[in-house]
Amino acid sequence: MRILFVGDIFGRPGRTIVHERLPELQRQHSVELTIANGENSAGGFGITPQIAEELFELGIDVITTGNHVWDKREIIDYLNSANGNEASLARRVLRPANYPAGSPGFGWYEGRTRSGVAYCVINLQGRVFMTNNDDPFRFADQLLKQITAKVILVDFHAEATSEKIAIGWYLEGRVTAVLGTHTHVPTADEQVLKGGTAVQTDVGMTGPYDGVIGVQKEQILARFLTNMPARFEAATDDVRLCATLIDCDPTTGRATAIQRIMLRQD
């Protein structure tokens, strides 16, 4: 079974390259399950219900997020609409599971692929250099007691490389993959641990690389040089799609291979 995870989709440039290149990737690699982090898909900050459903129409099965999930207020009612309705598309848009109890929406999703393979996607957020939430390590323990699927992918949205590596080791042999998001820079440390868990510190950004982690470089440079507040807008050039491809055994959930992918718009 092959799983494709698309790194942080940033603004319109990121959505455009997903539209252009995702179907090709899915066909080329016989992908059965596609997941994407979409927390920056609306202008680089947040996600809207309309954009979420556009991403589903492009063939993405589950959308994960992170610390920017609430940047577009309309997503709150959308996530709340999934309560009691497992069939709702909104149920497949996740916010970090270790957010405070009572937060809108859900942090994990259990479903089946078109061929009937049970899977689960878990969204967690780190605590180092980020807003303090529940312990993602122990929260993962709690979730794994409830999940029956063997194929389990974790999007760990975190800042610190050390924390991302640590949770990979912590979940070794218990999940299929732990993939890092948030820092928008793809890392070359992908590996399959002995316990059958594929890990990568950060999948990277799907969006414009002619900027600073997606934002127009002139605006970021002005901020560093003057320390004055400024409106940040998405860059537009050197658009790339960053993703990670994972092979796993659908009966055991053990990963057998992991591969980095980077495609340019041209």
Summary of the model, kept short:
By secondary structure, the protein is α/β, with parallel strands linked by helices. The chain is built from six helices and twelve strands.
Low-confidence stretches: none
Question: Helical segment tally?
Answer: 6
CATH fold-level name: Purple Acid Phosphatase, chain A, domain 2
**What is the CATH level 1 assignment?**
Alpha Beta
CATH architecture: 4-Layer Sandwich
| Helix and strand pattern | EHEHEHEEHEHEEEEHEE
What is the rounded distance between the termini? 29 Å
State the secondary-structure class: alpha/beta
Q: Tell me roughly what share of residues is in helical segments.
A: 10-25%
Q: What is the fourth-level CATH superfamily?
A: Metallo-dependent phosphatases
Which helices and strands occur, and which strands form pairs?
Layout (H helix, E strand, L loop, with lengths): L1 E5 L4 H18 L4 E5 L11 H9 L4 E3 L9 H7 L27 E5 L5 E8 L10 H11 L4 E7 L3 H10 L6 E5 L9 E2 L5 E3 L6 E2 L8 H10 L12 E10 L6 E10 L2
Parallel strand pairs: 1-2, 2-3, 5-6, 6-7, 7-9
Antiparallel strand pairs: 1-11, 4-5, 8-9, 10-11, 11-12
What does this structure look like?
The protein is α/β, with parallel strands linked by helices and 266 residues long. It is 24% helix and 24% strand. It has helices at 11-28, 49-57, 74-80, 136-146, 161-170, 217-226; strands at residues 2-6, 33-37, 62-64, 108-112, 118-125, 151-157, 177-181, 191-192, 198-200, 207-208, 239-248, 255-264. The strands form 2 sheets. Strands 1, 2, 3, 10, 11 and 12 form a 6-stranded mixed sheet that branches. Strands 4-5-6-7-9-8 form a 6-stranded mixed sheet, with helices on one face. The longest helix is centred in the N-terminal third of the chain and has 18 residues, at 11-28. The two termini are 29 Å apart. The mean pLDDT is 96.
